[in-house]
Structure formats: structure tokens, C-alpha cells
Structure to design on (854 residues):
């Protein structure tokens, strides 16, 4: 199953777990399934159920996703929530 | 000099990519024919000026524009009341970032408060600039002056004056109830920091301060806007992204994007500072009121006071290593000034500052802090130069204390493909190690530096580069040339680097392609020229557009020869029948047949590529410090940078040199100087000291090519990373010259002397 790395400031929602396995074929499914097990995470990482929260980016297998919640996730994928960056 | 480390998928024999043709816009640029914003003049055009706040923080009790409106020649006056004020927390998705519409509007013209000296309060359109300026003096604003806060550390304290009374700290998405200038806090954690430091045999801990600095583009912001009687708005401006301007104006004025056309003109520098729309919404309001086109040009003082510089910062770094020279733990705290509104590049600083290294245990806290200074904007590798300055000075000190050569120390700890980054994800193919090896083998690093008060410093830097949306379209002319239209504002010669990628696919010389930057009605959505994304993403759009053309041209050849399209091959600019070698047409010959086979061929492509490849750069600097004055002279500077594949090496070299020049300016001289009232005291280029050619040696460039497997030609993006290492490299060189560790930017003569006096136990004498 895909592995989600939980940012340290959210780990109280996962009882201190740094990494959790979550089923899902898209990022949206992953977040929804994460929310089902660890309530409270979704509102921290999503904005209005429609996009990744402002200021956050999601790296899937080392690559910042450009397709948002629709991004397809592989069964062995590694998912990180990181600070968003825009360039100059 | 280019150092090719490996080929990408075995491709070595590029015909166009990697060559040095004459740039398409060269003649217009050197003869002064290129059209910039201030060159534009329209019939019946008015001129507008802005009244700005004299106070750093004040409530506006009233604005009386009666006298200004009565002045002969004045056509209209606008204030914040003329701007739509949207709902409390509505956000606008501007593609690159999501911003509060309320903040967007409030930043354009003050509503109830001014948040920094220079804040726009009202604007006047008149028959000429002189009348407009005179009218500004007739506007009466009654202010209630409020306490202000300028320094990031002061702003973070409980009880500090609040820039926004309603702002509460968000902690990684969690809304707290704490009213504060700290808009947000985040934390990045890897491994176990306590265990890491327990393993450390040597620890260095230091704190750093950097001041707010400006991008220093030569051309001030300008815009000409015409709100036509049919409701269509046309904007001509100098900006890094026409679509970004369109979207911002749409949100601020509440107009659909279909009513707005933005025409990008040539740009005289941006470096991240020309993404926000400062003048366009105001000129639009004035044009709507008057029915005339309205032109606005900022003065240099306005540019410095009221556009978006980058954050001043306070940073702490604690780094531990083993005696064998392996980094085992790093803990950092970054507090960045966001200026008047939340949203600064502290996240980028946190993610990038440790990217060159493989470190098992990391903890980084970041704070985005509002202060009564102009709202910050992107500046070349936003947020990263400050953070890397701090990290690389500590890396240098660790290497010194361990008695290890600083390049060898970096090689011992270098990140590679497969290394888990400090911010979590695992690296794809990267080129830091290859850059270090190039440094180690270089003439500069192997040369001896002799003489009193001279020293050599080295520093690494990283920038992740960007992807985003880009579009390209192209039409094939009957003479076999191509008219290419793309959506990226040309900064640093991107017209040519994009056209070269198309030329490579089509087997044409690049002078057969005529690239143009389209307006927002002429080309598909394209993100800003920023994030070092343009040659990567728009180049990819041109590559894909060329493939579309080849597909269509094959169909035409098949029609002409009355054979199957499957029987057509395209190789090195020639269409051939696979089964009949006598059937062959060059691209030019087939182009001449297009009218007879169905009309013109037009290619198109839109891309949103995901294969972005981050880039590393390493800078070596030799300096001499004048022990009497503290002045630093840069004797020699070299940069080694992984470009992925350098599409047009002269532009890559130009970006490398420009970035190093800006980095040295940031290192030694540049800073915003405010007085106790929060007034900017150095708002001209006489007092805001940027380096000139007389301050710098020829900067030696070494392109290292570790192609990015995520791009057809291996492009990484080159524009931003070269600014990152210079301040740390200069600081490390100063240490070796005179034995003082500089921890504050800029390292101006006075600060260096003070450190030298502290070290020597003297006061006033070195």
C-alpha cells in the first residue's frame, strides 16, 4: 500500500506515527482514507475539498505533483506533504 | 567551458541544442528598437501618479480629494473605495499561488489602514505627469498613526504592534486562536534530532541575520491600460507573466478573464519582482472613470519603497558531525519577514538549505512573520539565499574545526540520487557531487592565493526549479520557416532557448524559426517566467508542438505521394518514403507544397510536465579585506553549475554570471535601511548600493551537465540557483582572510570592522 509520511506537527492526529500505510489510487482517495482513520487530517491538508491547501505541496515518489488531488498513486508510492515553493 | 558528465538516453549528436547561434532579439535590443512599456504611447493617453503613505503604520480616518479633482488638467482620482472589497476569506487561485482576494485588493489601494511607508493611498490621472504630481499634493489624508514593527524578532514577541489585528497563527494548517504577527509556522523533521546530536562529536551553533533586499531590476514597473467603451480591458505592461496579470486584475476588479487582454512588452529585468500587479488595477480604474488610456510608470523611489523585495530574516543553525567528518544532525529555525501581508518564501528556504547533503537527523522550524515593510515578492531562488548563507557558513566552520578541506567535507556528505532529502522525499538524479568534483579539479581551486588579508571561500547551493503550464503554437510558412508563438515573457533570452528545442526536432537551423511572445488572446495559458521553468516547460511545449507539425507534415507527404502515412519517415529535416527511396522532400520543399495538399500546417501544444529536476551550484570566491576600512574586494569568482543540458550555453553562462553578481551585491552591500519611524532611508540607487562592473571581476563559468531524465533534452533550469551560494562563499572567504565569522548580511565594511575589532579586542583600530 502507499505510504504517507505524516508531518511532525500533525503526528498527534496519528498517535505519533511518522508513516502510515493508506489504500488509494489517487491522492484524493488517499486523503479521504487517511481522514477515515485519523480524523482531522483532511482539513489540514486540503482547501474546500477541492485542492491541496495553500502553502502546501505534495511530493509523490520524490516529485512534486502538478495534478493535485487527481494524481494517480502507485501501490508502492511514498507521499510527503511539504511546504509549497514558487520561484522568481 | 562545459563539462558533460553523461548523455541523456544516449543522445549526443544534437545539431541545434548546445550550439551558440545569434539570438533572435539581439538586433532590436542592441539598437534600442525593442519596445518596452515606457515606449508605448496611445492617442488621448492620460498619465497617472500615486499618493503614498508617509507612515509605516496608520489608520486612515479620512481622505479628501476635492481640491485635487478641481485642479485643471486632472481627469480622475481613485481611492480604495473604488475597489471592490470581497468577502472575508475568499481565496484566489492564481496558478502559482493561492492568495486572499481581500489582501490582493488591499495591497493595491489602502482601505482602512496603511501598513508600510510608501503604501498606495490614492491615484490621480491627468493630462500629464506634472499635473498628476501637483494634484497628489492637494489630497488631504487624515491619519491616526499607529505603533509599528520592523524587525522580525521584535514582531514575533508577545505584545508587539500587530500589523493585522485579525491575524492568527496557523500551524501547518491548524488554525490557532493566537493573535500574532506570526502568520504561519511549519516544521520539517527527519530521523531523531536528539539521537543525532547525541552521536555528534563536534557541534557548531550560530545565529544569523539578513536584511530585506530588492531585486534591483533596471526597468521600473510600468503599465498602460485602456478600458474600452465596449467593456474590454487591454493592458500593456512589463511583467513576468501576462496570464498572471490577467488573473490578478480579474480577481481584483471582479471582471471575467475573457474581458481582459494583457500584452506583454519587453521586460528590463524582473528576478521575481515583476509577478504581482501593482499598477495595472489602478490604471484600469482610472481608465474606466475617464474613458482614456492611462499610463503609469513608477519612479525608482516607488520601486524600492513599494514593490516586493525579499525577506529579511533571523536564522539559527546547529550542526553536528562525527570526527570522521559525517554530518549526523542539523537543527534550524528560520523566521522570515513577509512584509505587510502573510506569505513569504520561508518554506523554500527550509526545504532547500540542506539539500546538498545527506543528513540522517534534521529538524527545521519556519515562521512567516508580518512586519510594517512592503509585502515581499519572489526574488531569484526565493528564500533560499538567506538560508543557505546560514547553513553553508556553519558547514565551513565544521570542516575547519575538523581539519578537513571544505570541498572534501562536502564530498563526504554529498547528497546523491537515492538520498532522502531533509524535507522527506528521495532525490532523483542530481548533480551536486559532479559539481564538487569539477570544483576540486578546477584551476581556480587548485591555484594558490597569496597575500595579506586574502582568503578563499566555497559554498554550495540548491534550487528545486519549477514546472507549471506552458503553451506553444506554430505555423509553417511556404518558404519552410516557422512562426512560433509562445506565452513566456522573454527573460534571459528564452525566445531563443525555446526556439532551439523546436529547431532540433524539426531538423532546422534556429534562424528558420521566428519566435514571438504572444498576448493572452493569442496563445494558451502559460505560467510566469519564474522558478527557472521557462526553458524546461515552454521549451517542452515547443518540442511537442514541433512533433505535432511533423505528424501533420507526414500526412501531407503521404497525400502528395499517394502512400500510407505509416510509410513516411522523418529524419534530420527530410521526409522520406520508407519503401521508395526516390521519394524524399526536405522540410522546406514539403512546406512549399502545403497549399496544394490542404492548406497551412499549424502545430500546437500545451504541457504541464512533472519531471522537474533540481539544480546545484557551487561558487568559489577569492577576496581581499582592507583591514583599515573593512572594504572587501572580490579578486576572483568562479561558479560550477549543473544545468542538466545547456540548450544555449551563452545564456546559461549569462544567468550564472548574473546570479553570482546579484549574490555578491547581497553579500556585501545591499540592504533596506529604515529609520526609527519606519521610513526607508535609502530609496535610490545612489544609496541602495548594487554592485557595478567596477566592483566585480569577470565571473568564470563552468557548466556541468548531468541531464535531467525528466525532460526530453535533459533541461533542469538555470536562472535561480547561481544567486544562492555567493553570500556564504564570500563570508567563508572573509573568514580565511581576516579570521572573523560573518553572520549578518550585508557584510558591509562597518560590520566587518566591528567584528575585527571585537576579535582583536580593540575599538576603532584594526
Amino acid at each position: 500500500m502507499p505510504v504517507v509520511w505524516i508531518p511532525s506537527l500533525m503526528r498527534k492526529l496519528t498517535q505519533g506515527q511518522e508513516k502510515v500505510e493508506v489504500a488509494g489510487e489517487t491522492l484524493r482517495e488517499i486523503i479521504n482514507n487517511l481522514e477515515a482513520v485519523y480524523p482531522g487530517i483532511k482539513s489540514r491538508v486540503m482547501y474546500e475539498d477541492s485542492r491541496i491547501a495553500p502553502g502546501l505541496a505534495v511530493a509523490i515518489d520524490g516529485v512534486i505533483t502538478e495534478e493535485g488531488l487527481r494524481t494517480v498513486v502507485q501501490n508502492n508510492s511514498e507521499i510527503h506533504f511539504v511546504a509549497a515553493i514558487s520561484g522568481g | 567551458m562545459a563539462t558533460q558528465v553523461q548523455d541523456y538516453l544516449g543522445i549526443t549528436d544534437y545539431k541545434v541544442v548546445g550550439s551558440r547561434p545569434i539570438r533572435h532579439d539581439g538586433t532590436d535590443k542592441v539598437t534600442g528598437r525593442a519596445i518596452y512599456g515606457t515606449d508605448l504611447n496611445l492617442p488621448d493617453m492620460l498619465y497617472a501618479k500615486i499618493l503614498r503613505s508617509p507612515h509605516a503604520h496608520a489608520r486612515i480616518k479620512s481622505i479628501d480629494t476635492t481640491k485635487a479633482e478641481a485642479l485643471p488638467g486632472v481627469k480622475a482620482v481613485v481611492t480604495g473605495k473604488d475597489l471592490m472589497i470581497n468577502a472575508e476569506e475568499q481565496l484566489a487561485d492564481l496558478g502559482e499561488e493561492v492568495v486572499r482576494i481581500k489582501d490582493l485588493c488591499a495591497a493595491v489601494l489602502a482601505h482602512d489602514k496603511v501598513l508600510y511607508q510608501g503604501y498606495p493611498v490614492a491615484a490621480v490621472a491627468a493630462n500629464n505627469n506634472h499635473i498628476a504630481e501637483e494634484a497628489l499634493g492637494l489630497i488631504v489624508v487624515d491619519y491616526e498613526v499607529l505603533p509599528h514593527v520592523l524587525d522580525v524578532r521584535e514582531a514575533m514577541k508577545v505584545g508587539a504592534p500587530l500589523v493585522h489585528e485579525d491575524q492568527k497563527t496557523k500551524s501547518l494548517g491548524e488554525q490557532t486562536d493566537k493573535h500574532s504577527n506570526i502568520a504561519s509556522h511549519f516544521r520539517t523533521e527527519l530521523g531523531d534530532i536528539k539521537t543525532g546530536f547525541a552521536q555528534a562529536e563536534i557541534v557548531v551553533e550560530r545565529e544569523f541575520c539578513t536584511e530585506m533586499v530588492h531585486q534591483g531590476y533596471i526597468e521600473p514597473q510600468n503599465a498602460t491600460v485602456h478600458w474600452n467603451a465596449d467593456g474590454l480591458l487591454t493592458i500593456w505592461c512589463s511583467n513576468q507573466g501576462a496570464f498572471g496579470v490577467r488573473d490578478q486584475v480579474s480577481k481584483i476588479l471582479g471582471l471575467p478573464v475573457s474581458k481582459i487582454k494583457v500584452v506583454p512588452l519587453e521586460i528590463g529585468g524582473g528576478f521575481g519582482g515583476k509577478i504581482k500587479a501593482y499598477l495595472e488595477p489602478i490604471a484600469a480604474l482610472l481608465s474606466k472613470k475617464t474613458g482614456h488610456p492611462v499610463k503609469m510608470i513608477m519612479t525608482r523611489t516607488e520601486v524600492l519603497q513599494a514593490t516586493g523585495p525579499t525577506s529579511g530574516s533571523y536564522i539559527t543553525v546547529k550542526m553536528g558531525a562525527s570526527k570522521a567528518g559525517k554530518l549526523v544532525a542539523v537543527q534550524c529555525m528560520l523566521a522570515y519577514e513577509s512584509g505587510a501581508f502573510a506569505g513569504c518564501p520561508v518554506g523554500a528556504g527550509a526545504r532547500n538549505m540542506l539539500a546538498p547533503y545527506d543528513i540522517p537527523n534534521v529538524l527545521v522550524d519556519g515562521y512567516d512573520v508580518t512586519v510594517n515593510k512592503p509585502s515581499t515578492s519572489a526574488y531569484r531562488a526565493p528564500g533560499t539565499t538567506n538560508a543557505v548563507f546560514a547553513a553553508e557558513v556553519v558547514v565551513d566552520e565544521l570542516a575547519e574545526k575538523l581539519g578537513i578541506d571544505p570541498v572534501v567535507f562536502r564530498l563526504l556528505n554529498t547528497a546523491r540520487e537515492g538520498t532522502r532529502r531533509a524535507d522527506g522525499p528521495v532525490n532523483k538524479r542530481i548533480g551536486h557531487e559532479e559539481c564538487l568534483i569539477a570544483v576540486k579539479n578546477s584551476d581556480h581551486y587548485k591555484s594558490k592565493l597569496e597575500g595579506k588579508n586574502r582568503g578563499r571561500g566555497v559554498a554550495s547551493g540548491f534550487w528545486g526549479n519549477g514546472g507549471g503550464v506552458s503553451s506553444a503554437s506554430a505555423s509553417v510558412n511556404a518558404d519552410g520557416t516557422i512562426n512560433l508563438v509562445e506565452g513566456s515573457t522573454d527573460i534571459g533570452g528564452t525566445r531563443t532557448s525555446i526556439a532551439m528545442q523546436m529547431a532540433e526536432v524539426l531538423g532546422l537551423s534556429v534562424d528558420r524559426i521566428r519566435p514571438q511572445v504572444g498576448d493572452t488572446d493569442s496563445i494558451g495559458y502559460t505560467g510566469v517566467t519564474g522558478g527557472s521553468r521557462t526553458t524546461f516547460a515552454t521549451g517542452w511545449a515547443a518540442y511537442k508542438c514541433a512533433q505535432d507539425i511533423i505528424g501533420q507534415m507526414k500526412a501531407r507527404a503521404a497525400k502528395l505521394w499517394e502512400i500510407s502515412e505509416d510509410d513516411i519517415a522523418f529524419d534530420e529535416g527530410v521526409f522520406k518514403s520508407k519503401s521508395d527511396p526516390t521519394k524524399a522532400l526536405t522540410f522546406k520543399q514539403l512546406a512549399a507544397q502545403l497549399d496544394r495538399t490542404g492548406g497551412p500546417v499549424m502545430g500546437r501544444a500545451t504541457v504541464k510536465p512533472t519531471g522537474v529536476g533540481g539544480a546545484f551550484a557551487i561558487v568559489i570566491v577569492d577576496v581581499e579585506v582592507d583591514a583599515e576600512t573593512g572594504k572587501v574586494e572580490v579578486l576572483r569568482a568562479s561558479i560550477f553549475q549543473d544545468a542538466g543540458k545547456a540548450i544555449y550555453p551563452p545564456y546559461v553562462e549569462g544567468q550564472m554570471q548574473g546570479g553570482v553578481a546579484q549574490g555578491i551585491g547581497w553579500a556585501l552591500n545591499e540592504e533596506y535601511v529604515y529609520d526609527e519611524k519606519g521610513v526607508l532611508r535609502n530609496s535610490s540607487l545612489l544609496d541602495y548600493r548594487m554592485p557595478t562592473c567596477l566592483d566585480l571581476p569577470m565571473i568564470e563559468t563552468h557548466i556541468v551537465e548531468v541531464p535531467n531524465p525528466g525532460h526530453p533534452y535533459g533541461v533542469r533550469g538555470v536562472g535561480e540557483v547561481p544567486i544562492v551560494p555567493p553570500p556564504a562563499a564570500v563570508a567563508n572567504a572573509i573568514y580565511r582572510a581576516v579570521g572573523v565569522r560573518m553572520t549578518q548580511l550585508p557584510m558591509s565594511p562597518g560590520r566587518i570592522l566591528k567584528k575585527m575589532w571585537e576579535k582583536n579586542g580593540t575599538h576603532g583600530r584594526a
